[in-house]
Amino acid sequence: MLNFCYPQAEQKPSQLNLAQLLALLRKIDHLDSKQLLPTLEQQLDPLESLSQEHYAQLRFCEQLFSNYCLGHKLAGEIQQALNPLLLIMADLQLNNAKWAWQPHPFIDLLANIQQHCIGWYANDNRASQRFLQQLQQAIAKLITNWQQDKLDYQHNSLKVFFEQHDARISKLEQRVIAAESGALKAKRSQQMATRIINEKMEQQLLPSCIQDFLQNSWHESIILLLINSENMQAEFHRLKKLTETFIWTFKPYDPEDNDTQQRIYRVIGHLQEELAENLASLKHQPDKLASTLATIESQHLRILKGEAIERSPCVLLDNNPLNDSHTKISGNLLKKVNQLKPQLWLSHKVDGQVQAIKLLLKLSDSQQLLFSNYLGVKACQYSYEEMAYKLSNNSITALPHQCRIMQTASILLEKLLSAQQQALQKNLALANEKKKQQQAQVQQRLADQKKALAEAQALAQQKQRQQERLAAVRQPELSFNEQQKYSLLLHKLNTGGRVRFYRNGQARECKLAAITKQASNYIFVNQQGIKDCEVLKQELIAQLATKQAEILDNGDHFEDALSKVVNSIRNRK
Questions:
Q1: Can you give the pTM of this predicted structure?
Q2: Which of 27, 220, 262, 542 would bridge 281 by S-S if both were Cys, CB 3.0 to 4.6 A apart?
Q3: Which residue stretches, if any, does this entry annotate as coiled coil (predicted)?
Q4: Pick the CATH number of 331-398 from 3.40.50.1970, 2.120.10.30, 3.40.50.720, 2.30.30.140
């Protein structure tokens, strides 16, 4: 199939064998592009060329390498630095055409490159330029080891470079995580605390002192409790329930409703202790804690005594609407966010500019995502909700994080196979069309020959008739003596007589079969007894006179008499 899809334009008298080609490959130490064959052909003698099989294998290898670089979305400068690896890939392809579908350390090497280079993009940063330069140097050493047949996939310059890079970036990323994780959790805790307060105070009537307590001391305490919790979601629901119960105790109720009154007694009895335990913001301010609890207790006593207390509508805290609990996010969008794994690279589009970012930290409790760039520096952070929207509008998309050389090779082969089938179908259609044209031409030639033969026969018959008419016209011109002479000859001609006719340079002998009653028509048959012609008497005289006919034998009177008897019997019937 490869030979069909990649035909060589010209094959020279001398073709390199596999050993010669591999040796020539190892003499090349640098490639400026993804085209290997032009560089190889420059090394050949004028009368040398590659075999068709080797040429097709290398063309396939070039296309595979190009598709690999483009499909894995590596930066152009990185692709340029990786071009020398095409030499190693060509070596593998020539020795084992199925290497891309089998476990091989070179595929692991490509995966390592993909993992470390996917996030790189060109800028004026020194660290960026240093990374590219060190990558080029590591690949150059790798090629040198390959040329000397000393390539070790487990311990090589490229692997050492990536390990050193990982160690440096890991330290930077840990600093970012340490600095940002606490801030992210604090930010999320504040949003969750505000959500609790606003949800439970909305459309409620509460004393102003209780409103002040909820939006200050209690709000701050919820934030601290969420920050220090190991399970933010569980703590969130616990504090949400406690806040709801606390606000419920200040709702107006009917004094005659004994069940409600008894329930309020029971709740208030242990509520003070729960508040004291959870007022984290006042733990180090015992005087303010006691004063706050006393204010709450005094309000509860007035309620228990049935005294009227002044209530006013609650004013809610300011909150970011994007992070509000009332913002509805579909489960499918959040599912995509939940499936994201740390160390995953993504393409981030901001104001038309595309940058690669890596998911550095995923805080499930605080619902926050922290991203860094390839230098280990913080790039951005988003909540789960924000990330869900960005994934849905494709402003953030996942980048390839694995080496997909097998898939790339399979796709390329499928395209080549499809192209081959289309070409074969086209050639078959052309061959069928050519065959139809040839058949049509043969049929046309046969028809033309048949037509020409018919025209020739018609022309010959026409010429014969013209000659006969000419003879008939000339007949009156014969002299009286000639008329008498040839009439006498015909008079002697009896049935069974033989006459030789001359036409178109050919002679044929015929036998007189019968003479009509008026003796005006002479009927002749050929040697097989089949009628040959019927000639008028005057025409026959003219033919004898012009040497177109010659009487060879006058025939037998007996046969003529027998003919007359037969004719007489026929006439009687």
A1: 0.58
A2: 220
A3: 421-473
A4: 2.30.30.140
